[in-house]
Design brief:
- By secondary structure, the chain is α+β, with helices and mostly antiparallel strands.
- It folds into two domains: about 15-215, Beta-galactosidase, Chain A, domain 5; about 235-320 and about 375-535, Alpha-Beta Barrel (TIM Barrel).
- About 15% of the residues lie in helices and about 30% in strands.
- It contains seven helices and 28 strands.
- It has helices spanning about 200-215, 255-265, 300-315, 375-395, 415-425, 510-515, 515-530, and strands at about 15, 20-25, 30-35, 40, 45-50, 55, 60-65, 65-75, 80-100, 105, 120-125, 135-140, 145-150, 155-160, 170-180, 185-195, 235-240, 275, 315-320, 325, 370, 395-400, 435, 450, 470, 505-510, 530, 535.
- The strands form four sheets. It has a 16-stranded antiparallel β-sheet that branches. An eight-stranded parallel β-sheet has the order 25-24-23-22-19-18-17-26.
- The chain is elongated, with a radius of gyration of 25 Å.
- The two termini are about 50 Å apart.
């Protein structure tokens, strides 16, 4: 984390037990309130701060601008904070600084605190955090919470650090940052409600946010969801059938996938089976953006046999598609890619996760373009390709890869893009299931099922109220610990947690069916013992 090497000299305002400062961040600098232009009104229920000027560079320079802060008292030490700001320059973000703590330890997604105070940390929503809420434990054991009620699910960031300069040196500060949708940067900003509270009961505090999200973001409890075909609720088992690795190594041909499905459906009702196909289109990721059955896996005829055989068993086929990635070196890329690049708010091209696909140890993936699903050219092309294949092969589920990746793109909003994409895929196709990778609250209303790693991503229990989770391709198969097409290559095999929100999942590479039948049958038994909708007997 980068900090200033000087005291910013931001005015500190006392609101009950809270010490608050405020900053406005434009596209060209960061500004604090000018104490000479600050008027404060206090009543029994609230405080009103009106500031008619800004300072920057540690108070050495002045700038025009206006900031209004209304702080309303809640129960106990709770505060609701509303901020409006105007400056001569376009505003990127507004920051609330909660200051003067002796120490702070940020809790993780499972509500666990670290063993030692957090010296410096940044948490980003939606990329690190899955809801715009943070909880932190003070040195004396008091749990404080901060959350933002934003009906547009815009970017939030939280930072904690020990101050080194000025009269508060040695104490800890928690920053709560709201960033505007980059499409709408302007010289005026209205910040949605921030709620801060001391001595919280964390489930209750989080429940307040989830109640807001159900009202305003469209979160729907799983039992009430209408955005999936009825057969979805019968799924008890997911088969991850790995196709072709990035290098071209074949784990399973289409005929081998067909044999696996038939084997499994002899042990469990096929209507309860969802067969997920990563690397079905050929070289994993390399082929992204140009989807078709691959000749080396058997070609169109064998893929048709696979789909027909699965349908005869009652099983559901779900090929994998890159929702926001395509090969920039592919011959068709020029028709949709150049106008669709994913970008940061200040227009840096987003480079993504850059796996070491070729084991050069360079992580140099210049061919791997990250595209915005809200960009018309890419959305149109991806929709065209997916629906053409759905209609031709009549599979009834689609998996969209890496939907959790998010940037504040100044041209097209990613969340809105996914809403549009899923609506177009399902239009007139009520029997089509659309699932995605990973989750945050803005995606929970869009996808009913998510691929979720069972061992390296934290999943709080409340997620099961809204969605179901299947195994991630990073979760290995049971014969040799291979992760198939996934870039890690190997990890220790482990079953998914035995929990209602997880759909039992078993992965297959070459040799899994021959060398791990005992484990396969155990997982199938576990699946048979569940009830439709993911509830264990």
């Amino acid at each position: 984390m980068h900090l200033f090497g000087f005291d910013t000299r931001d005015p500190v305002f006392d609101a009950g037990p809270w010490k608050l400062s405020f900053q406005v961040i434009t596209l060209e600098n960061v500004y604090g309130l000018d104490p000479d232009g600050l008027e404060i009104r206090e009543s029994e229920q609230d405080w009103q701060l009106n500031c008619s000027g800004m300072r920057f560079a540690g108070g050495q320079q002045h700038s025009p601008g206006r900031v209004t802060v209304k702080i309303t008292r809640g129960a106990g030490d709770a505060l609701k904070i509303l901020i409006d700001a105007s400056t001569p320059h376009k505003i990127r973000a507004v920051k609330i600084l909660l200051r003067g703590f002796t120490s702070l330890a940020l809790l993780d997604l499972l509500d666990q605190a670290p063993d030692v105070p957090t010296e410096q940390a940044i948490k980003r929503y939606p990329n690190d955090l899955r809801i715009p809420l943070i909880a932190a434990l003070t040195e004396d054991g008091v749990l404080i919470g901060a959350r933002c009620h934003d009906p547009q699910a815009r970017a939030k960031r939280f930072a904690v650090y020990q101050e080194r300069m000025g009269p508060l040196a040695g104490t800890y500060t928690l920053e709560c940052i709201h960033e505007e949708d980059a499409r709408h940067f302007d010289t005026h900003i209205h910040v949605p409600d921030w709620i801060i509270e001391r001595s919280i009961d964390l489930p209750t505090f989080r429940g307040g946010y989830l109640a807001f999200a159900e009202r305003e973001l469209g979160l729907v409890p799983w039992a009430q969801r209408q955005d999936m075909p009825p057969w979805t609720r019968d799924i008890r088992l997911v088969l991850t059938l790995h196709g072709m690795h990035w290098t071209g190594y074949v784990f399973n041909s289409y005929d081998q996938m067909r044999d696996i499905i038939r084997f499994v459906c002899d042990l469990i009702d096929g209507q309860q089976v969802l067969a997920y196909l990563p690397g079905w289109e050929g070289r994993y990721y390399w082929q992204y953006g140009d989807y078709r059955p691959d000749p080396l896996l058997g070609g169109p005829e064998a893929f048709q046999r696979l789909c027909d055989a699965a349908r005869a068993c009652g099983a559901h086929i779900m090929p994998m598609f890159g929702a926001n990635c395509a090969n920039a070196w592919a011959p068709n890329f020029h028709t949709f890619g150049p106008s669709s690049y994913m970008k940061s708010a200040s227009r840096n091209v987003f480079l993504g996760n850059q796996p070491d696909w070729d084991s050069s140890r360079a992580h140099d993936t210049g061919w791997q373009a990250w595209l915005n699903p809200g960009a018309p050219a890419w959305q149109n092309e991806l929709t065209r390709q997916v629906l053409m294949l759905v209609d031709q092969y009549r599979f009834d589920a689609v998996f969209l890869d890496t939907v959790e990746v998010w940037v504040n793109d100044p041209d097209f909003n990613l969340r809105e893009g996914y809403q549009q994409l899923v609506a177009r895929l399902r239009a007139g196709r009520p029997n089509l299931l659309v699932t995605g990778e990973d989750w945050w609250d803005g995606l929970l209303p869009i996808f009913p099922i998510f691929q979720q790693a069972g061992h390296w991503r934290q999943v709080p229990a409340w997620v099961g109220r809204y969605a179901r989770l299947m195994g991630h391709i990073c979760d290995s198969e049971p014969s040799r610990g291979s992760t198939g097409v996934f870039e890690s290559g190997y990890t220790d095999y482990a079953r998914l947690p035995d929990d209602d929100m997880y759909i039992p999942t078993i992965a297959f590479v070459d040799g899994t069916l021959d060398h791990a039948q005992a484990e396969i049958e155990t997982v199938i038994t576990q699946a048979r013992q569940s009830l439709p909708g993911g509830v264990r007997t």
